Amino acid sequence: MDDRFEPRAEKIADQERKIQAGIDAKDARGGGSKPKGAVQAGARKYPEPPFPKQHQPKPGDEAALDPAPLYDAPC
User: Fold this and answer.
1) How many beta carbons lie within 10 A of that of residue 65, not counting itself?
2) Could you give the CA distance from residue 6 to residue 12 in angstroms, rounded to a whole number?
3) Model confidence pLDDT, tens digit, residues 2-43
4) Under DSSP, is residue 19 helix (H, G, I), strand (E, B) or coil?
5) DSSP assignment of 8-27, as one string?
6) Higher pLDDT pick, 22 / 72
7) Helices (H) and strands (E) in the chain, counts
8) What's the CA dihedral at 33, 36, 39, 43 to 10 degrees?
9) What is the maximum alpha-carbon separation in the chain?
10) DSSP sequence for 58-75
């Protein structure tokens, strides 16, 4: 094994540990607000859990689902 990278790797690992310790300390202090519900980004309202149970026998009927399935393109 080539040891020429070991000192630099240890230095970088120490820097990363310091960054993570700062993040952990911020989390412990409650340093951020927790989002409530689903992320609402975009032009449409996204459904939020809990979702109703909607078991259907196969093959199933997508039109009967509420909320309707979301696809990439908005309606």
Assistant:
1) 13
2) 10
3) 678 888 999 999 999 999 999 888 888 875 566 667 676 777
4) helix
5) HHHHHHHHHHHHHHHHHHHH
6) 22
7) 1, 0
8) -110
9) 64
10) TT--GGG-SSPPP-SS--
Residue 32, CA distances (Å) to 18, 23, 47, 60 in order: 19, 11, 24, 42
φ, ψ (nearest 5 deg) of residue 2: -90, 115
- Local confidence band at 1 (pLDDT 50, 70, 90 cut-offs): low
pLDDT in the model for residue 29: 83
Token output for 51: 């979702």
Tokens 């690992």, residue located: 13
pLDDT for res 5: 82
pTM: 0.38
